[in-house]
Amino acid sequence: MAVALDTPTQEIFNTPSRPRTAWLMMLGFLVYTLLILVGHFVGFPLGYAYLHTVCPSGCSLTPENVHALEQSGLSIAFYANLYMVIQVLYILVSVGIALLIVFKKPGQWVPLGLSCFLVGFSAFEGIDYPALAIAYPVLNVPAQLLIGLGMGVLGMYALLTFPNGKFGSRWVLGYYLVNAVEGFLAVFITTPVFVLINTVFGLTSFPTILGILIYRYRRLLNARERAAIKWMIVSFSVFIPTLVLFYILLAVTPADSLIVPPGQYQRLLWLWHQYCGLPDGGHVCQCLRYRCVCQAHAGLYLADRHPGRVVWRDGLWFAVCLRDL
Fold this sequence. Notes:
The structure is a single chain. The relative contact order is 0.10. The chain has one domain. The chain is mainly alpha-helical. It has 13 helices and no strands.
């Protein structure tokens, strides 16, 4: 005799379970996120103390920086507190968006790669991990490898194969492999020549990725995939000249001068200049724009059936990132 199941019970039995691979991918992401956050927790007090250090070179601030702060009516404590507040905010935003993407799109490599990129970015920027490496040099290489796993391996894969997860061309795959190997070697090789090569790779990554995205749009993707990738192309096209213009502005505006009349603009510009002047500051500034690009397009994974929502979220995150800059 057959027994009829009630509706809730039937729905439970009929609901398909997630594949084991999806659960393993999500578990790996959570472990990666936990490791990154542990580094932040340990490095937070070390970074805050480092921001108060003053010396001619090798510290957070130089005597000229302190003098400029005093002329602007700001204290070292204010600078350190503001820096840490901004850092905590972008960590929360980056990790929060990454979690949304992973739980919205479980078991897919491109969303997973973008999420790991954002989480790794939260460690690459700021002062927590540089201060951690200064206090505990033995952790420098493991920390760089951990960050490189999210940004260089999984994150770059997500960017170069967006949105279908397929390279589609041997030369795109070749660029990905060369970039991954170069990033791995840069952790261990610190000679001036290789540092220059690493810098060139970083500076040329923006136009290279933009070119790959345009190539994929024109040659490899279908109509639906083109609708998703075109917003990335637009944002990269906007951010590249904006990045160049911003660096020109920083180059012609001395950080310790009062050429600009006192006011909020001058203070924010000076603080940003100091933010870029920390250890590996050039990479910090470059990757902060890179993070904005990724966050601006995180909404692409959250709006499958509502194209208007894609535009709205893209514009919202773009505005938020510009406000932070």
